[in-house]
Amino acid sequence: MWYCKRKDWDRQQERAREREREGERERERERERERERERERERERREREEERERERERGERERERERERERERERERERAEGERDGREERETRRWETSAVRGAAVEGGKHRSRGDRGEAQKAGVKGGKYRRQG
Q: Is 123 helix (H, G, I), strand (E, B) or coil?
């Protein structure tokens, strides 16, 4: 008689321990899921942070490229202005020298060389500036 009761009691104890172990396993699984969710949130946060960083860098690179383009346009403008100024300066110098030569020619000097200044101004072939026509 006591043996059966003992057996029942043992079974009850075993079932209680089994339920306890099952509960413990369930709590462990729950903790594991919670850690997994936490890792997932952390990963998403890191991805968002990296995306923001990439976006910021992309914007920075874009602004840098824009500044570089602006600098290039500025250099191009200055170069064009410099060329124009240089051309004007050269033409002015040419006109001045030819005017001096023309004056010299008109003054009676260098007549053997041709009327360079006037020839060039008038667009007539002659003298040093023959190539320009």
A: coil
Ordered alpha helix ranges (H), the chain: 2-106, 116-122
DSSP code string of 54-88: HHHHHHHHHHHHHHHHHHHHHHHHHHHHHHHHHHH
Q: Hey, what amino acid is at 29?
A: R
What tokens appear for 118 in the block? Answer: 């006037």
For 5-28, the pLDDT digits (tens) are 888 889 999 999 999 999 999 999
* 98 and 116 Cβ atoms separated by less than 8 Å: yes
pTM higher than the cut 0.85: no
| Domain ranges (residues) in the chain | 2-132
**Residue 14 burial (C-beta neighbours within 10 Å; 0-12, 13-18, 19+):** exposed
